Amino acid sequence: MPDPLATLESADIVTGEPAPAYGLQRHVLGPMEVLAQSVSVIAPSTSPPLNVPLIFLLAGNGTWLAYALAMAAMMLIAFCIAGFARDSASPGSLYVYTKQTLPPVFAAVEAWALFFAYLVSGTATGAGFAYFTQQFLLDIGARGTHIPVALLGWICVAGGGWIACRNIKISAETMLWVEVMSMLLIVIVIGILLWKQGLHLDWPQWSLAGVTPQKVRQGVMLALFSFVGFESATTLGSEAKDPLITIPRAVVRSAAVTGIFFIVCAYGTVMAFRGVTPPLGEHAQPMSFLATRAGIGFVGPAITLGMMVSMFACVLGCIIAAARVLLLMAHHGLVHKSFAATHSDQQTPAVASVLTAALAFIPIAALAVGGASAEDIFAWTGTLAVFGFMTAYGLVAAALPFHLRRVKRFSVGGVVLSVLATAAALAAIVGTIYPVPDKPYVYLPYVYLGFMVLGMSWWWVVERQKTAL
After folding, report:
1. CB 239 within 8 A of CB 324
2. Which of the chain's termini has less CB crowding within 10 Å, N or C?
3. DSSP notation for 311-374
4. Which three-class secondary structure state does DSSP give residue 9?
């Protein structure tokens, strides 16, 4: 007999009270569309050309192991989040989870950190869109064509904002097909190349030749960045069908599927570049190079195009997620109530979506005018976003035992999971600030702290006003 709570749209499974829709659509997204939200924010197809070469510079033959360990850490956090998602469905996502279990100050930290993470991820992937667009023009021979980074960023962010204001089902379907096609192209290229080389074990990778624990640790810290955003399906709340089933499954599956994809791509790419000059860590377009080496060079531009469109899908996913967190923050008094409004016809948080898109574009324009390249903007803001994600993950992981006690499922296993996941989130934050990074990365923690101080100052003012009343 089906569990009657499995299909309950509850904000709190303990009370059984129906969840407010907050003006959003109900029951419009199926399991694949919910999964698409998380996968699109991860943007897994962009990791092989961008992150794998960087991790290889650190971990060498241990690149696949770095991804495997990062996947293990993210799976711990995913199970913590799923522990909440099976009992609670709300557009507020991780913010609502902490609000239900921890003191208000921690819920406010969670809200501002999560909004910051999605917002700055939108900035990073908007710059990534500009970078891959420029690469695509080079691939097709349009070397004399120059489109400013700021203009490309505006096209991407404005387009994502427009779609986010439209029907959420259309948005989800767009993200799903974009990412699937991008990932498929990469798998085909690597598969063909390895087949042509002859199926065999790459012993230097299996034996971890030249790899040290310190190198792997550094690689893991960077590999963790590839996974952030896997929890964004939790922002869909009442828009998902059977949210207490589909959302926790999407969270766990997105981390698992993309983790396997990363490990396979890392192993295959390092193996394919064995003995190649320039080596993997110094190659500007590894996927296009591999396509040419596999004898299907005509696929190179298609792969770059896939990366470009994948970045657009990620921007869209970030705007969708950030707008829903902002909507809940407005309902709870953390930001102005005007951001709680939803479109009368489309039933989307249009005001919040427009603001998110505008805020995501401003850093792209400012940095581009200052002379920064699209690649630099992507690297700087992508690293900056991790601080917000890891803060949000750590708080939710720490809150899990309190939630389990609340729903009468407390167990030693839950406490162990909470401790391990919290430690993983803290290790990721420490790994980005120690050893002390070079400029401008050394300044990024202060940028994040400045944002959080402003957000928490506003929260303090609001709380004082409530107390005065």
Report:
1. no
2. N
3. HHHHHHHHHHHHHHHHHHHHHTTSS-GGGG---TTT-S-HHHHHHHHHHHHHHHHHHHHTT--H
4. coil
CATH number for the domain that contains residue 72: 1.20.1740.10
Question: Is the pTM of the predicted complex or chain greater than 0.85?
Answer: yes
Residue with tokens 């002859």: 198
Report yes or no on 2 lying in a domain: no
Please report the beta strands in 203-273, taking only residues with DSSP state E, as ranges in sequence order. none
Distance set, CA 295 to CA 81, 198, 256, 277, 289 (Å): 44, 15, 31, 18, 10
Closest CA to 173 of 339, 409, 181: 181
Tokens 């999964």, located at residue: 35
Q: What is the pLDDT of residue 20?
A: 64
Total H helices, total E strands in the chain: 16, 2
Cα separation, 64 vs 54, in Å, equals 12
Instruction: Give me the average pLDDT of each 10-residue run along the chain (469 residues).
Output: 36 53 77 88 89 90 96 96 90 87 95 97 96 90 84 96 80 72 87 82 93 88 89 86 92 95 95 88 84 85 87 91 94 89 83 96 97 92 93 97 94 96 92 85 95 96 83
Collect all residues with Cβ–Cβ distance below 8 Å to 356 and sequence separation of at least 6: 118, 119, 122, 161, 164, 318, 319, 322, 323, 326
Half-sphere exposure of 189 (CA within 13 A, CB side): 30
How far is Cα 126 from Cα 179, in angstroms, rounded to an integer? 16
Element housing 306 (H / E) = helix 299-331
Helix (H, G, I), strand (E, B) or coil at 262: helix
Q: For residue 79, give the nearest of 228, 225, 232, 231 by alpha carbon.
A: 231
**Is residue 1, in this structure, part of any structural domain at all?**
no
The residue to which tokens 């698992």 are assigned: 256
Non-local (6+) Cβ contacts of 221 within 8 A are: 427, 428, 431, 432
Structural domains in the chain (count):
1
How confident is the model at residue 282, as a pLDDT?
84
Q: What is the pLDDT of residue 13?
A: 52
Query: So what's the pLDDT on residue 1?
Result: 34
Q: How far apart are CA 325 and CA 452, in angstroms?
A: 16
In a domain, 359, yes or no: yes
Q: How far apart are CA 87 and CA 108, in angstroms?
A: 21
Residue 363 lies in domain? 10-468
**What distance in Å separates the CA atoms of residue 239 and residue 246, rounded to the nearest whole number?**
11
Domain annotation covers residue 369? yes
**Cβ(306)–Cβ(43) below 8 Å:** no
